[in-house]
Amino acid sequence: MDCSFATVINCMDGRVQLPVLEWMKGRCDVDCIDTITEAGPNGILAEQREPCISTIKERVLISINGHGSQTVCLVAHHDCAGNPGPKEMQLEHLRKGIEVLESWDLPAKVMGIYVNEDWQVEPVQGCD
């Protein structure tokens, strides 16, 4: 099966998986989403926590180089157990995490989204 790909760095929380995948498929007009999951990935990237950040980068590069992904999306969400805190903190970590991703000079568009208390995706950065 030939697929067009995008990459999502998402929380492991099962509540956010489906809304994010559906939004990504529609927004990025792709067939398949490579999914990298961690507990609170926006916090991991914002705080540059090793060794997690290195494995995230490795998996992003596999998606880009192996599957031709042209979009990488970082996710933050309401009620995150892995990175607990209010929406304002989640968004701050999301923006800092995007800065880290952009510092990797990836040959892909980088964007960020927030999944709210109604489990709906809110575009935050780079989603235009």
Notes on the protein architecture:
This protein is of the alpha/beta class and 128 residues long. It has one domain (5-125): Beta-carbonic Anhydrase, Chain A (3-Layer(aba) Sandwich), CATH 3.40.1050.10. Helix content is 42%, strand content 26%. Strands 2-1-3-4-5 form a five-stranded mixed sheet. Strand 4 and strand 5 (121-125) form a beta hairpin. The model has no long low-confidence stretch (mean pLDDT 95).
Low-confidence stretches: none
Q: What is the top-level CATH class?
A: Alpha Beta
Structural class: alpha/beta
Note the gap between the termini: 29 Å
Instruction: State the helical fraction.
Output: 40-55%
User: Which radius of gyration do the C-alpha atoms yield?
Assistant: 13 Å
Q: How does CATH name the architecture? A: 3-Layer(aba) Sandwich
CATH topology: Beta-carbonic Anhydrase, Chain A
Q: Tell me how many strands there are.
A: 5
Total DSSP helices: 4
In N-to-C order, the SSE pattern is EHEHHEHEE
In the CATH hierarchy, what is the superfamily?
A: Carbonic anhydrase
Q: Give the spatial strand order of the biggest sheet.
A: 2-1-3-4-5
Q: Determine the mean pLDDT.
A: 95
What is the strand content? 25-35%
User: Describe the biggest sheet?
Assistant: 5 strands, mixed
